[in-house]
């Protein structure tokens, strides 16, 4: 019997589970009057929240949910965006899509913010004499809703809005790059779409494929599910098998200092409405995190209106610190976590096997032409937000190299994680072939370039990525041969100096 190269791996999907309450906005959404100035828009859940004290309602707090923000086109590098159209005499030869999963429920993690508030709440409202002396906390004012509140969230799964984000992305990519996929179909095997075995990752790939290919998706492409847990290597979740990531958590430590500062006033303000229990910055941060999680899962959250504009900006910055410090340019292991997928990208662009020292690749997958083909003109891989950041770091997109201060945010920084890795974030690497001849019969003068789109925004390319001979800071183009040469030289050098140690 032939081996099935594309099994479902249900046993490796983790401890995901659905929430205990279904959304019922027809009954529960009573926040706003009929003449509210802010309509739902395209989102199926409530988005008309107003930050505390924002009487004009001009601040869109939803876009400041950091890595939990819903997908929206990034506003970064506005000066380049006039170059989004394909240059004259150029054609697109290959596209590599790297896609984050959609909006999700909280992770099944003892340190996840939303479940941590559930633990505090249960202890605070317990009448067990061994806990708080049996004194049950009570709530008043804006926290009165906690009198009847229960924790109803699931864990790890995509929410329906996450399905929508991936489906919409698939449709968008179909309109943008459809012919490239049809070219891939002409090869001897079906094109491969790669993802990992967590349920939200599998669902993300399936819903994207449904939008991109339609209901006949399974007949047109194979979804390759790489096991994420249990010691198996995969470049789509390299941190799972990189022991150094467990001890290199500079961002998480910076976040701990930052929330003490930006939530100091919120702790004092909300403590007046909590009787019989003590609030801390950590508990209040967990409360704030429930705003996006409950909105995605239940359709709305009464936690959202408890915080000021400044406190939502502070919430966003806490995510910036974690992702830059743990996975980005401020992390000792950020580059190592992303380097494996970067090597795979270069191999695809060259059309040859990985020639640099192996890192986080699964050699069983990458050593097989069926599971790691090199003849596709359109590739799609699905990954996590932290991997999006670490891959940008590995490929030295140093325009995101902002060094963040744990107590003083720089309003002009380029690293804002809601612009880089929101829910359903995507990076598109386009390989262009351009005819640079000045005359019609001047011989072969075609040259290939790389350009990159992050959440619809064209990114600048720099000489530190090997982009010499062309001003990639101006129009986002980088000579592909120079980019590959620079990347492979740096990997070979690093491999000799400090080999990557993976299980």
UniProtKB/TrEMBL annotation:
Entry keywords, A to Z: Disulfide bond, Glycoprotein, Hydrolase
GO molecular function: acid phosphatase activity
Matching Pfam families: His_Phos_2
Coiled-coil ranges from the UniProt annotation: none
UniProt xrefs under InterPro entries: Acid_Pase_AS, His_Pase_clade-2, His_PPase_superfam, Histidine_acid_Pase_euk
Keyword Protease: no
Disulfide bridge positions per record: 90-434, 291-304, 467-478
Glycoprotein keyword on record: yes
Source organism, top-level taxon: Eukaryota
Name of the protein in question: Phosphoglycerate mutase-like protein
Native organism: Meira miltonrushii
């Amino acid at each position: 019997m032939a081996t099935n190269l594309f099994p479902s791996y249900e046993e490796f999907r983790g401890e995901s589970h659905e929430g205990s309450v279904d959304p019922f906005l027809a009954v529960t959404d009573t926040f706003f009057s009929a003449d509210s100035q802010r309509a739902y828009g395209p989102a199926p859940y409530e988005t008309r929240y107003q930050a505390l004290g924002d009487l004009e309602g001009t601040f869109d707090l939803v876009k400041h949910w950091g890595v939990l923000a819903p997908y929206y086109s990034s506003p970064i590098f506005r000066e380049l965006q006039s170059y989004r159209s394909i240059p004259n005499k150029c054609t697109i030869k290959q596209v590599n899509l790297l896609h984050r999963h959609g909006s999700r429920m909280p992770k099944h993690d003892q340190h996840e913010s939303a479940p941590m508030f559930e633990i505090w709440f249960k202890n605070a409202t317990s009448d067990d004499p061994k806990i708080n002396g049996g004194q049950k906390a009570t709530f008043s004012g804006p926290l009165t809703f906690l009198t009847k509140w229960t924790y109803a969230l699931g864990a790890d799964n995509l929410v329906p809005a996450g399905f929508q984000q991936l489906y919409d992305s698939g449709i968008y990519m179909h309109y943008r790059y459809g012919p490239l996929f049809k070219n891939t179909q002409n090869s001897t095997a079906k094109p491969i779409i790669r993802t990992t075995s967590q349920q939200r990752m599998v669902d993300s790939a399936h819903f994207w494929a449904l939008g991109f290919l339609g209901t006949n998706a399974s007949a047109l492409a194979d979804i390759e599910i790489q096991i994420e847990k249990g010691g198996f290597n995969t470049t789509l979740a390299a941190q799972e098998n990189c022991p150094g990531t467990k001890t290199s958590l500079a961002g998480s430590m910076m976040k701990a200092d930052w929330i003490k500062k930006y939530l100091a006033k919120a702790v004092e303000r909300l403590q007046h409405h909590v009787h019989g229990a003590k609030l801390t910055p950590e508990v209040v941060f967990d409360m704030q995190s429930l705003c996006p999680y409950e909105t995605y899962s239940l359709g709305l959250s009464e936690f959202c209106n408890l915080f000021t504009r400044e406190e939502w900006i502070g919430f966003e910055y806490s995510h910036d610190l974690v992702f830059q410090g743990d996975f980005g340019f401020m992390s000792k292991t950020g580059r190592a976590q992303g380097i494996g997928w970067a090597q795979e990208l270069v191999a695809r662009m060259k059309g040859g096997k990985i020639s640099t020292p192996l890192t986080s690749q699964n050699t069983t997958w990458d050593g097989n032409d069926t599971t790691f083909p090199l003849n596709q003109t359109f590739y799609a891989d699905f990954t996590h937000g932290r991997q999006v950041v670490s891959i940008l770091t590995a490929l030295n997109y140093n325009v995101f190299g902002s060094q963040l201060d744990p107590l003083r945010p720089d309003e002009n920084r380029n690293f804002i994680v809601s612009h880089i890795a929101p829910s359903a974030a995507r990076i598109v690497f386009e390989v262009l072939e351009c005819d640079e001849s000045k005359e019609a019969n001047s011989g072969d003068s075609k040259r290939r370039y790389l350009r990159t789109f992050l959440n619809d925004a064209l990114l600048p390319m720099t000489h530190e990525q090997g982009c010499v001979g062309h001003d990639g800071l101006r129009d986002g183009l980088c000579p592909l041969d120079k980019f590959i040469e620079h990347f492979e030289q740096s990997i070979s050098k690093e491999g000799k100096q400090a080999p990557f140690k993976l299980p």
